[in-house]
From TrEMBL:
Protein name per UniProt: Type II secretion system protein J
Keywords: Cell inner membrane, Cell membrane, Membrane, Methylation, Transmembrane, Transmembrane helix
Membrane topology: Single-pass membrane protein
Record bears the keyword Methyltransferase: no
Stored NCBIfam families: gspJ, IV_pilin_GFxxxE
Family: Belongs to the GSP J family.
Subcellular compartments: Cell inner membrane
Amino acid sequence: MSARRGFTLVELLVAIAIFAVLSALGWKVFDYISKVKERNGMHEVRLSQLQDAYQQILRDMVQTVPLTANINGDVESALLLQNGRFSFSKTGVTDPLNQGIAPDERIEYQYKADEKKLYRLKYSNLNQTGQDQPNPSVLLTDVEQFEIVVLNPNELKSWPDASVDLTKLSEMQRLPRGLKMNLRVNNNEYEWLFSLLNTDFLLPEDKTP
């Protein structure tokens, strides 16, 4: 009958070393998978935020109307792009309870570079006293750069054009054909184009025979 033989010290040390190596490799694989899953989750959140912002801006652009606003007694053009300020009149507000809510409102996009945020400010009336408080919401976060350019059809960095006669109501009500938004979010560059040519809502004096 042969004697039973156990593991030698060398064999135990080799086994422990192999186990340690496999454990380290297994932890690295697990850590890598966890980080990839976390990155994918963050990417999905950012993509969802971009899609939501785009859809909101698209709805605003579709509902933009050639109606001037009255801000504390001063008439403001239907769409204003001056010195980084961008505001416009839009329609489409519903009043299902018949509370006398106006169908039109004034919207302003405001980019704050120090916060890296793009805000949407909503005024519930085109006629404001200057003390009206808007309803703010955040369209986008982590915005490193934001610029709006008017397309009519050439690119313009301000609207109304300085060459037009702003004493005429028709010029104040005139809308450009489109907008281009350039933005950088999380080191990714985006260019969004929107059409503003809604001939179904043109005022009578603006329609061509």
